């Protein structure tokens, strides 16, 4: 976050069996709604690029979801080698 009005674009990576609508926009939304630091939680599943927008401790976050063709998501240091 660099300046006023800026947001933080983030990506949640999940395995192939995770359903974006049910697991990301329903289950994760429910979890985030219970976090005190999360405000203005707004799922936008029908957007051209589906996103969940919220503020975490006052910082604007855009959270996107991507599924990869794996049953287990590898460590971050290994994830770029699967493509």
TrEMBL record:
One Gene Ontology CC term in the entry: nucleus
SUPFAM superfamilies recorded: Nucleotidyltransferase
Domain of life: Eukaryota
Molecular function terms, GO-annotated: poly(A) RNA polymerase activity
One protein family per Pfam: PAP_NTPase
The Poly(A) polymerase nucleotidyltransferase domain, residue ranges: 1-75
Protein name listed in UniProt: Poly(A) polymerase-like protein
Native source species: Trifolium medium
